[in-house]
Amino acid sequence: xxxxxxxxxxxxxxxxxxxxxxxxxxxxxxxxFYTSKLAGATVADIEAAHGVDIxxxxxAGVEQHPDPILKAARDGHAAFLVAGDPMISTxxxxxxxxxxxxxxxxxxxxxxxxxxxxxxxxxxxNYRFGKAxxxxxxxxxxxxxxxxxxxxxxxxxxxxxxxxxxxLDIDREADDYMTSDGAAQRLVEAGETGLAVVVGQAGSDDxxxxxxxxxxxxxxxxxxxxxxxxxxxxxxxxxRDALRALAGAPENALE
Length: 255
Fold this sequence. Notes:
- By secondary structure, this protein is an alpha/beta fold.
- It folds into 2 domains: 2-109, Tetrapyrrole methylase, N-terminal domain (Cobalt-precorrin-4 Transmethylase, domain 1); 114-254, Methyltransferase, Cobalt-precorrin-4 Transmethylase, Domain 2 (2-Layer Sandwich).
- Helices cover 38% and strands 20% of the residues.
- The chain has helices spanning 17-25, 43-50, 59-63, 67-75, 90-101, 114-122, 138-141, 148-159, 180-189, 214-217, 237-247, 251-254, and strands spanning 2-6, 28-32, 55-56, 78-82, 106-109, 133-135, 164-168, 170-171, 176-177, 195-200, 208-213, 227-231.
């Protein structure tokens, strides 16, 4: 049995009760933190919370050399831990399919995702979000500025009146996390100047939620990672009220 366990958004307390039970029942526990991480907890914190040893696998250890995980799942019960919710990343889907090819039973225990948290914290309605995109570091995509695909996604959503969730890049090798002010600066340089909403430290006791025009956001600091940006499309009156009340949006930004 291979159980994919979503750890939730922020720290070792974010996991569901069902997830805790799956870890307690596992003979082997693996994890990856290159697609995302728990900003409020170390691996040692997670191990201490569950009384287990965790084998953390890097990208190659999951995508190219998954045999130790699959063997543990074939011989007993293995738990595979990820920040947020499993199956959001194609990496996790690929591993699950490999398990099925070997007749290894799998199951998924969900955790809260950044996408649902962005909607919940900002008050922007979940069904009014369009296609999401990721803003990469220039070194990640090998080019200058904002990739055209990111701007095209934003424009296509805006044309339909939909909100755009912008994930901000993580460089695990450099231990570097793109911040919302840096992302705002890059988007302004690419010609975007409208309303945006910063979401930081989602899942913590004191998350950051700030709405303003991008030129104003690039001048501010929003605390430690992880950060997200939301570029709203057409706003419902309730969404306008929510951005005023929950994100401190100034009136000129909502016009």
